[in-house]
Design a protein that fits this description.
It holds the Pfam family Oxidored_molyb. The protein has 197 residues and is mainly beta. Helix content is 9%, strand content 32%. The longest helix has 8 residues.
């Protein structure tokens, strides 16, 4: 393992377990509409928008990017947290550097195979602990948990970490994602219990 980031809570609060959360050893599966189908032969990951060099990666190319393994905590907006998850993946800043972010980029919209989207300010994504993860606890990321690729955002509620992610769009202004359009918080800070907008 390259890094343990389970102490990042110190940036946001006094307790590793955010208020209103309960710790569980399980890793429940939640999604808006079930696990989408995909095939390794046709899967691609696209980067576009306010970047210098729009990119498209197949699965092998994406997994060939510089990666890290981190121990992170995972906080679901429905009230549970799972500690000490080991995610392996590509840090967001690594992917952003590949594409070259334009000065006018201010926000990010993640896109997923099932049509799910979620947004964050660019500044909230340019953290080494925001990963495009494809392994969990040493094994390939299970499809119910977002395999082949998901975003993990340990400083946010997990709906900000799109499962089955297949693209990232760099925006010049905010654009609300799936749950944000339905009343969930745009900022999603677990230590402030920012569950709803």
């Amino acid at each position: 393992m390259d890094e343990d980031v389970t102490d990042l809570y110190r940036e946001f609060g006094d307790s590793r377990l955010p208020p209103g959360q309960r710790e569980t050893d399980d890793f429940p599966v939640l999604s808006k509409s079930g696990t989408p189908s995909w095939t390794p032969e046709t899967w691609s990951f696209d980067v576009w928008g306010a970047v210098d060099d729009e990119r498209s990666y197949d699965l092998e190319e994406f997994r060939g990017l510089p990666a890290t393994t981190q121990r992170q905590d995972f906080h679901c907006v429905t009230g549970w947290s799972t500690f000490d998850c080991e995610f392996t993946g590509v840090p967001f800043p690594t992917l952003a550097a590949e594409a070259g972010i334009r000065d006018e980029a201010t926000h990010v919209l993640f896109h997923a195979l099932d049509g799910y989207t979620t947004d964050l300010p660019l500044s909230e994504c340019l953290r080494e602990d925001v990963l495009f993860a494809y392994r969990l606890d040493g094994d390939a990321l299970p499809e119910p948990h977002g395999g082949p690729l998901r975003v993990v955002t340990p400083h946010k509620y997990a709906y900000k970490g799109a499962k089955w992610v297949d693209g990232v769009e760099f925006l010049t202004e905010t654009e609300r994602g799936y749950w944000e359009q339905r009343g969930y918080s745009a900022s999603a800070n677990p230590w402030e219990e920012e569950r709803y907008g």
